[in-house]
Specification:
By secondary structure, the protein is an alpha/beta fold. It is 39% helix and 15% strand. The protein folds into 2 domains: 9-258, Aspartate Aminotransferase, domain 2 (3-Layer(aba) Sandwich), CATH 3.40.640; 260-380, Alpha-Beta Complex (Aspartate Aminotransferase, domain 1).
């Protein structure tokens, strides 16, 4: 029996083959392979879909976060507050700009950065020598980086209020939440947002790619300069990066962009099926809000690894996002400014979270197999 995969990228190519190959042929005929009209057209279309004034493409989601932090004013020696429950790139980007990550626990329902814990953190900080900017162990806390984990939009309204009152800006890691919104507000109304177009994302390239969304023209212009070695009219005003999106990736992404709504609708339908059909002993994620993005469907349980092994034996792939908290990675832990604070809620997610297949190419029979296998595991182990 065919394996139920967590991701099926080949199916997406088969579904849109003619459209994608036409995009490739167009780029080949143009002879322009880095930046150019293809990239500009994609940036404009992406900005419109994401309700942002500007979308500036870069070479990866990690670069998007690095450049968004730099352009938003994060400087060497600063401190940046974020969640410990994320891909390593979130903390890596903070360290790459010369800042130090500080970790605040997550909300027990959403798994996103918890406003109450953020407020508690800032209450322990000192007032800076000028203005409202808070200081932690002598470091200016210049930014807060919420992560829209699994595609669920963090409570940006509360986080923004707390951050601004403490002199910090918001720079969101929206790698899993392309086209997400919060109520009537776009993500960029809260600050810059970094996107990833890694192939497994809802909008995935045929390689790496990323973008920064912003409503601030100054931030957008600085990122355009930073991505091309800091050049402005041929003069390097500051040291920058080589982080340009290939025209081929832009063309592929532009071809797939109109399908993004369909991708979201299919994934939401799969999530609704799981929510209705999984047995009661499975701890489901909260229902998606209208503006959330359905990127992963992540359940929780104390026997996570046993369930994953059972599903694997049944020919069903699963994923663990994330098994280690960010400050538990040696490369990050060794660069921290003192011991990290305890984050028990995030630690529980790291022990218990398991993502089930939810991609848009799943057949009804695939979903039925997943649910049947989960039920069988429960029956074998006396779970109710």
């Amino acid at each position: 029996m065919k394996r139920v995969e967590l991701v099926d990228l080949a199916a997406g190519v088969r579904e849109h083959r003619a459209l994608l190959l036409a995009a490739v042929e167009r780029v080949a005929a143009s002879g322009r392979f880095v930046l150019g009209d293809e990239v500009l057209a994609f940036e404009q279309a992406l900005a419109e879909v994401c309700r942002a004034r500007f979308a500036v493409s870069v070479a990866s989601g990690t670069d998007a976060l690095v450049l968004a932090l730099v352009a938003s004013g994060v400087a060497t020696g600063d401190a940046v507050v974020t969640t410990p429950l994320s891909f390593v790139a979130t903390a890596e980007a903070i360290l790459r700009v010369g800042a130090v990550p500080l970790f605040v626990d997550v909300d027990p329902e959403s798994a996103c950065l918890c406003p109450r814990e953020l407020e508690r953190f800032f209450a322990t900080c000192d007032m800076g020598p000028s203005g409202p900017t808070k200081v932690h162990r002598g470091r200016r806390v210049s930014a807060v980086v919420p992560v829209h984990l699994y595609g669920r939009i963090a409570d940006l309204v509360a986080l923004e209020e707390i951050a601004v009152a403490s002199g910090a800006c918001l720079v969101a890691d929206a790698a899993q939440a392309v086209a997400g919104v919060l109520g009537a507000r776009s993500l960029t109304s809260f600050g810059a947002a970094a996107l990833s177009f890694f192939p497994t994302k809802n909008l995935g390239a045929w390689g790496d790619g990323g973008a920064v969304l912003t409503d601030d023209e100054g931030v957008a212009q600085r990122i355009r300069s930073l991505r091309t070695h800091g050049l402005d009219a041929g003069v390097a005003e500051e040291l920058g990066y080589n982080s340009r999106l290939d025209a081929l990736q832009a063309a592929v992404l532009a071809a797939k962009l109109p399908t993004l709504r369909h991708v979201e609708e299919r994934r939401r339908a799969h999530a609704a099926y799981y929510r209705a059909e999984l047995p009661a002993w499975v701890r489901r994620p909260p229902a998606l809000a209208i503006g959330d993005v359905c990127h992963l469907f992540t359940v929780r349980g104390s026997r996570r690894d046993e369930l994953a092994a059972h599903l694997d034996a049944c020919g069903i792939a699963t994923g663990v996002y994330y098994r280690q908290l960010l400050f538990e990675h040696p490369a990050i832990h060794s660069r921290l400014d003192g011991a990290p604070s305890s984050c028990p809620v995030a630690a529980a997610f790291a022990r218990e979270a398991l993502s089930l297949p939810i991609h848009e190419h799943l057949a009804p029979t695939d979903l039925e197999r997943v649910v049947a296998a989960v039920r069988a595991f429960g029956q074998m182990n006396g779970l109710t």
